[in-house]
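The records we work with from here on pair a chain with its fold. A complete example follows; check for yourself that the lines match position by position.
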Amino acid sequence: MDNKAQVENFSRSVQQIKQEIKKDLVGQEDIVSNVIIAIIAGGNVLLEGVPGVGKTRLVRSLGKVLELPFSRIQFTPDLMPSDVTGTNVIEKDEAGKMKTEFRRGPIFANLVLADEINRATPKTQSAMLEVMQEHKVTVAGKTYPLSEPFFVLATQNPIEQDGTYPLPEAQMDRFMFKLLVGFPSVEELADIVNMTQITMDETANAVVNGETILAMRELAKQVPVVPDVLYYAMRLVSRTHPELPDSGEVAKKYIKYGCSPRASQAFITAAKVRALIEGRFNVSYEDIDALAYPILRHRMKINYAAMNEKLTVDDVITKLISENAKDKNSGKLDA
């Protein structure tokens, strides 16, 4: 099969996934698109939004559409690491002898919803680090690999912060995207009410399976990135570091801490998937700019000057994109 046919099949499969999800979820099209990009790219997503905007329903619907096992973990202050990963238990075998057996926790699924992840203690949150980055669990010195594809969608409430434990930077960096789930419009609220009056269950049908997702991931890895676009993405990440001698005015004025190299990896991996969804077998500057917000917003810290001017992180990212584009157009980004 040639590249054109592969791209068409890829884009068609993603459109079918979106159409099925629409049966269960009203609106939130950007959220759905980015979650699909992350799943295919092999990344994790942090959703920030108030309760009731469809975060759990989205993951359940994805599980049906992708024919993948779904698991939900409700994070609470008394949740222990073993409640997430699983633990060794002592049992008697048929001969009456004692033996140790590993009982898997809810993390052993393909799609995992970590609901209100910031309500668990740092000890329990740390149990997620190895899982999210390496897709494996280590208990009592023994490592258990997770089945692929594996995807963690974590949620946190931006309003109610009493009794929460902010996620450490190392854990935030494990999320490919941070997505902000907005409140539905009046029309969308009406559609949600009408939909749930019929049934509260998901009605989406299976479109692809785990094997197909892995094949799509392999195809995405083959998408070429020309040096100019690669350098453009790397400069955008570099511009978040005010301490670097070649950083721009935006970082020096508004940014306290910049992004890690994982942001650079996320840009290229996700941009390849986005290009295929858009029907292209090449990464464009537009792919990089569109992905800048979900990739950068949780990895950089703005300073007091930005907050004093009532700028959000997304506002600063907009300025970074504009600054990067100006330098590209003027030839300053030539490698």
Observations:
- The chain has 14 helices and eleven strands.
- The CA atoms of residues 46 and 332 lie 34 Å apart.
- The radius of gyration is 21 Å.
- The mean pLDDT is 82.
